[in-house]
Specification:
The complex is a heterodimer of chains A (114) and B (881).
Chain A: H1 9-20, E1 25-26, H2 27-38, H3 44-56, E2 60-67, E3 75-81, H4 83-100
Helix pairs in contact in A: 1-2, 1-3, 1-4
Chain B: H1 5-18, H2 20-37, H3 41-55, H4 60-64, H5 76-93, H6 95-124, E1 135-142, E2 147-150, H7 157-164, E3 169-184, E4 187-197, H8 200-204, E5 210-211, H9 216-220, E6 225-229, H10 230-237, E7 247-250, E8 253-261, E9 272-275, E10 291-296, H11 302-320, E11 331-336, H12 337-342, H13 346-377, H14 379-387, H15 392-430, H16 444-471, H17 474-479, H18 485-525, E12 535-541, H19 549-564, E13 569-575, E14 585-590, E15 602-608, H20 612-616, E16 620-623, E17 637-641, H21 642-648, E18 658-661, E19 667-675, E20 690-694, E21 704-711, H22 719-729, E22 736-740, H23 741-748, H24 750-784, H25 786-794, H26 799-831, H27 844-870, H28 874-879
Parallel strand pairs in B: 4-9, 6-8, 15-20, 17-19
Antiparallel strand pairs in B: 1-2, 1-10, 1-11, 3-4, 3-7, 3-10, 5-8, 6-9, 7-8, 12-21, 12-22, 13-21, 14-15, 14-18, 16-19, 17-20, 18-19
The chains are: A alpha+beta (114), B alpha+beta (881).
Chain lengths: 114, 881
């Protein structure tokens, strides 16, 4: 894994959420996707900052979408994963899989007395 | 766009932080989510957090508080956030305590804001001119006339030209001041005006707000061009910028308006500037009615300029000393414009600044006492944290964060209060004839100073209790049921020390306020030498264009007659000046005597109409005043006051003697009466020699006179009727400077009055704070000694003796502090001597009064908790632990 393609934990989560949404991803839906799947609600600022970083790395692309009344007439900014992003996801998964290999299937924290 | 403020604020912030495009998408997302969530208050908080999260994305999780996805712990900013959150929670848990601390601080900070704004606006930066240290005025002193260095109406045109020769000064400009009536449309207004020999804009270093300055040619040939102040242009001309280049009427004479002076530049509140060329051929060398300002030449110091001016003075003395004996030993001296104009305010300013420092120290001490009580209550919490491994530095930082946060809350409140105070003070100042143009405002500088003071105070009052809290042994604190016995003792010791400090500070402020109050009372007891109550005065300037010399006295005579006929008018007179504003002097010579070698005779010279002494209530000691037989063509007569007789006729009878007034070519007048002395320069100045000449015999040389009306009742009620009379005589004639003589006296006491009021307030505040401190000590001490009280009472101590015990122990630190405070009060009295009037620094009556007052308040504050302690039921007290 070369430098620059490394995905941090939150980057990985945001990128995966975007990938799940195909072409339907924008701020609100990405947040909802993360919330639905992880039970956590990051702030919109953190998500946008991460998306901006991912866009600079060439993993996602963005385009201006439709403006609706409930948004106060402001257009959406849509995000979708680019092939380079999919490749980075794949690499990260492989790296993680390699790291998992050989460990017992169910891990427990030490504090619980394993 | 008619969106809620929330959206506009968020949009503004986001756009600045992230750029327009990102801001739009984020705002849209937030609106969409908010629409789904609702608009309850916690939804709005969520919104605010989201916006903040966008501004600090790396801190987003810390701020949103619930999310730990990408938290990077441990940095100093991180612990700051934790500390702040914790501090806010602590404040929420004890709002009464936080409110008390914040209010105490707010009062102190409001005082700081008001005083610092005033000092900044009036003394430190009184004028908005660039390079103020290089803008100078020229003063003159005449030892032969006994006149000290003066900067007003002190130079003649010939002397101005002498001074201009100095190469160390550049861009000099001379001016005279007076009144002009300016007509715009239907209304005629009197404007205080400057008559300039030169263009003042380059000297002041400012550009006109609109238009251009005077051209050399316009000055030389006295063109009818005019410059107006911004405030007049705005208030009376509707800020119409097309007015520049048009004509306005000055004394019904058309003048081309060429410029507007930028706000708030007002020199001596002059609202109209017009050119006035005054060559030495126009005025004699000894007609000194101009003032001069200039800039120091590049690279030249003030001292160098004064060396050159000294040479010029000696040269003038050599050339003209024979014809003008007052030149013997005279001086010309340049001083910076700021020094000249703020000198009178400086003592008051620095006394008030000093007082504010004391107030802030007192506030900090008081808050420290409060926090100390608090930190003991939290001893277990701190001990627990320390036992769980929190370092001393970490705990210290936490406690200091809390105190600084409290300080900042107090500062916010205090600045809001300060705004109100500064506004009120500004309105008072606007109505006063102080030469300073600085407007009072809570500027960025003031806010910076205030914020610095607040943070310093927060650290200052936080550090003592915080260190104290850290000194406690966590082990023992946790073991003991409610803190350890030692910690109580050390806390009580510390609290008593703080009370002693408070007492010292309070007594110093009380004494300083007391000195001023006593001065004020002394001044009120001064006899002015006439009856200043129920006297209404106003000024009228007759236009030379419409009133030739011969028409001036008839106008005023008619005016006196008709005003005298108004019901409710007891007496009426006209005069060129009246106490406390007497300042015009004339040299004179007693007929048949040689002038003394060391000093030329000079005295205030006042033109007064028949009836003047009666209207003013100035007693006649001998002879007579002006009567109907003193007509223009009869022999000229004068009345002189008692100090005049004492100084110039020691042991002789002046009545029937003649004096020559106004130099070698002056006219001879016969002294016909001696009047009592008046405080002609204000209550705090001794009466000075004054001679009164009749307006009837004055040839109409003076076209500006004051109308003086003695009323039977409230003098201001007559203003309308008097205006009506003036209008009946000349519909276009304005009256101005309408005030009562009592007001005029009050104005001379302005800086003393305002210092007295402010210091009085500070002293009262100090008393309250000291009382709170003492109360706190006694209630704490008695609460900790419940058991002991029970034992004492069980063994037969009376309720009275228990109460006395607590009061005595509370007053011991007050006594110690008072001794230190009294010593400081003597020192402070010396520093504020110039503000005092017949009161000495260390005035025993003041010091005794201050000490008694503090003791009385201390007793009262100690008594309540002590009394409560003595009411304890001994049985329950013994069971309490």
């Amino acid at each position: 894994m070369t430098k620059g393609t490394y995905l941090g934990e939150f980057e990985l989560i945001v990128l995966l959420a975007t990938a799940q949404l195909g072409n339907q991803g924008y701020g609100v839906t990405i947040l909802e996707e993360i919330g639905r799947r992880t039970g956590r609600s990051p702030s919109i600022g953190a998500v946008y900052a991460t998306l901006a970083r991912l866009e600079t790395k060439g993993f996602v692309r963005s385009w201006q979408g439709a403006a609706t009344g409930e948004r106060g007439g402001r257009p959406r900014r849509h995000f979708a994963v680019k092939p380079a992003g999919l490749k980075a996801l794949e690499q990260t998964r492989q790296t993680l899989d390699r790291m998992w290999r050989g460990l017992p299937w169910k891990t427990r924290p030490r504090a619980e007395g394993w | 766009m008619n969106e809620p403020f929330r959206v506009r604020l968020a949009g503004w912030l986001l756009e600045r932080a992230l750029g327009r495009e990102a801001a739009i998408s984020i705002l849209g997302d937030l609106e969409e989510q908010l629409a789904a969530r609702g608009t309850r208050w916690h939804d709005r908080i969520w919104y605010g957090r989201q916006v903040l999260g966008c501004l600090f994305p790396h801190r987003a999780h810390a701020i949103s508080g619930r999310n730990r996805l990408t938290r990077r712990p441990g940095g100093p900013m991180d612990t700051l956030g934790t500390d702040l959150r914790f501090a806010l929670r602590t404040i929420r848990k004890g709002p009464a305590f936080a409110g008390l601390v914040a209010l105490t601080l707010a009062a102190g900070i409001a005082a700081t804001t008001v005083v610092y704004s005033a000092v900044d606006g009036l003394v430190l930066r009184p004028f908005p001119f660039p390079e103020p240290a290089r803008l100078v005025g020229l003063g003159t002193a005449y030892p032969k006339l006994g006149t000290p260095l003066g900067f007003m109406e002190n130079l003649s045109p010939a002397e101005y030209l002498d001074g201009r020769a100095a190469t160390s000064l550049v861009r000099p400009v001379a001016w005279d001041m007076g009144n002009r009536q300016v007509t715009v449309g239907e209304t005629t207004e009197n404007l205080f005006s400057g008559f300039w020999w030169g263009d003042p804009f380059p000297t002041l270093g400012i550009a006109p707000f609109l238009g251009r300055g005077f051209l050399a040619e316009e000055i030389r040939s006295a063109r009818s061009v005019a410059v107006l102040s911004h405030r007049v242009w705005q208030n009376r001309f509707g800020a119409d910028s097309s007015l520049v280049g048009r004509r306005i009427l000055v004394y019904r004479h058309p003048f081309l308006l060429i410029a507007i002076i930028p706000p708030p530049t007002l020199l001596y509140a002059m609202d109209l500037w017009i050119p006035l060329p005054v060559g030495p051929e126009v005025f004699p060398r000894n007609r000194r009615q101009f003032q001069v300002m200039a800039r120091l030449a590049p690279g030249v110091s003030l001292a160098q300029a004064n060396t050159e001016l000294e040479l010029i003075a000696r040269r003038v003395e050599g050339e003209h000393g024979a014809a003008f004996p007052e030149y013997a030993g005279w001086r010309i001296e340049a001083r910076t414009w700021n020094d000249i104009n703020v000198q009178a305010l400086e003592p008051a300013a620095f006394v008030l600044l000093g007082a504010v420092v004391f107030v802030m120290l007192l506030v900090s001490t008081n808050v420290a006492t409060l926090l100390l009580g608090r930190s003991s209550a939290r001893a277990r919490e701190i001990a627990l944290r320390s036992a769980l491994g929190a370092g001393r530095g970490r705990i210290l930082r936490q406690l200091l964060t809390e105190s600084v946060l409290l300080a900042l809350i107090g500062a916010a409140l205090g600045i809001a209060l300060g705004y109100v105070g500064v506004g009120a003070l500004g309105r008072v100042l606007e109505s006063l004839p102080i030469p300073v143009s600085g407007t009072l405002a809570v500027s960025g500088r003031v806010l910076a100073v205030t914020a610095a003071v607040a943070v310093a105070a927060g650290l200052g009052f936080g550090i003592v209790p915080a260190l104290h809290a850290l000194r406690m042994d966590p082990h023992r604190t946790l073991q003991a049921d409610s803190g350890g016995a030692t910690s109580h003792h050390s806390r009580l010791r510390l609290q008593r020390t703080l009370v002693a400090v408070e007492a010292a500070l309070a007594i110093t402020l009380l004494a300083a306020g007391g000195y001023l109050v006593r001065s004020f009372l002394e001044l009120r007891a001064v006899e002015p030498g006439f009856a200043p109550d129920r006297l209404l005065t106003m000024r009228l300037s007759l236009a030379r264009e419409r009133y030739p010399k011969a028409a001036i006295e008839p106008f005023f005579a008619t005016l006196r007659e008709q005003v005298g006929a108004i019901p409710g008018v007891r007496a009426v007179a006209t005069a060129s000046q009246f106490p406390p504003g007497v300042f015009l002097r004339q040299p004179f010579q007693i007929e048949g005597t040689a002038p003394p070698a060391d000093q030329l005779p000079i005295a205030f010279a006042t033109l007064a109409s028949p009836g003047f002494f009666e209207a003013m209530g100035i007693p006649l000691e001998r002879g007579r005043t002006f009567g109907p037989d003193d007509r223009a063509e009869s022999p000229w007569v004068a009345v002189v006051n008692q100090p005049f007789v004492t100084r110039y006729f020691a042991g002789e009878d002046p009545i029937g003697r003649r004096i020559q007034v106004g130099g070698p070519n002056g006219r001879f007048v016969e002294i016909v009466g001696i009047s009592g002395a008046t405080r002609n320069r204000g209550l705090d100045q001794p009466p000075e020699p004054e001679m009164f000449l009749s307006t009837v015999q004055a040839d109409g040389v003076n076209n500006q006179l004051y109308l003086i009306v003695r009323a039977a009742a409230e003098p201001r009620a007559l203003v309308g009727a008097v205006r009506q009379v003036v209008k009946g005589i000349d519909a276009e004639q304005p009256v101005y400077a309408i005030r009562t003589v009592e007001d005029a006296f009050a104005r001379t006491q302005f800086s003393r009055r305002i210092s007295t009021v402010l210091l009085g307030l500070f002293a009262a505040f100090a008393l309250v704070l000291a009382a709170v401190g003492i109360y706190g000590v006694v209630s704490y001490a008695s609460s900790q000694r419940t058991r002991e009280v029970g034992v004492r009472m069980a063994l037969g101590a009376s309720r009275g003796s228990v109460a006395r015990l607590f009061v005595r122990q509370a007053l011991a630190p007050v006594a110690i502090g008072s001794v230190a405070g009294l010593a400081a009060a003597v020192g402070i009295g010396t520093a504020m001597r110039s503000l005092l009037f017949s009161v000495d620094a260390g005035d025993p009556a003041t010091l005794v009064a201050a000490a008694s007052l503090l003791t009385a308040v201390g007793l009262a504050a100690a008594f309540l908790p002590a009394w409560r302690a003595s009411r304890l039921d001994p049985v329950r007290a013994l069971r309490s632990e």
